[in-house]
Amino acid sequence: xxxxxxxxxxxxxxxxxxxALNGVSLQVQPGSITSIIGPNGAGKTSLxxxxxxxxxxxxGAIRFRGEDITQRPAPQRAKLGLARSFQNIALFRGMTVLxxxxxxxxxxxxxxxxxxxxxxxxxRREEAALRADIEERIIDFLEIDHIRHxxxxxxxxxxxxxVEMARALAMQPQVLMLDEPVAGMNREETEDxxxxxxxxxxxxxxxxxxxxxxxxxxxxxxxxxVVLNFGQVIASGTPRQVQDDPEVIRAYLGxxxxxxxxxxxxxxxx
Length: 270
Fold this sequence. Notes:
Helices cover 41% and strands 22% of the residues.
């Protein structure tokens, strides 16, 4: 097994007297799809916010490609290659699809303020290269060419989720963090998003770290699954190993009925 691209080592996070994360550790292998699951309030989004730099942990360490990034602010983590989407869509609703996506490349732009204001030389060339990459690769990949000049506010929910993924891809990530990428989607939209996620791993070589409640999708797509409950890791392994773990079943169902858990997963996947 190769060295992990992302390591979370004994992270703790507290809000006042409430421990949101308590000694959480996990590893993400390069080229994998790793899913974080758990009941509501288990600490999944808190963990995502800590990895991406929005929260500062009380103790523990986060390493990206072997480098300790625990104290680095969110913009620096993004520049290193750690991009994310959000559970609640965080797009600029008054801007077009194309302009929202272009903002994702901001951390990598080399044009200075004067060049940008005058829009000459390096600024013009950088803008042309940016548009070519976004329009020829990202927009085409996510099948949103027909809405590139539309206002984000006018789009249905499922397309807004694609635009948010497109903006994250514009950041040129090595690890793409997706916070509930199919929440609120219908079946057709969910299947499309699942296909995009698989293609990102298989064709683009991007490592995916995902929080998701759709257990059917998690079990179908994931190489590795980490289960949180009350801010602690209670299980970690392949989808089959996690699915059969009694602690996971108790966390979701309050009972150790493996057959019931399997029936539930089968129903969700159908």
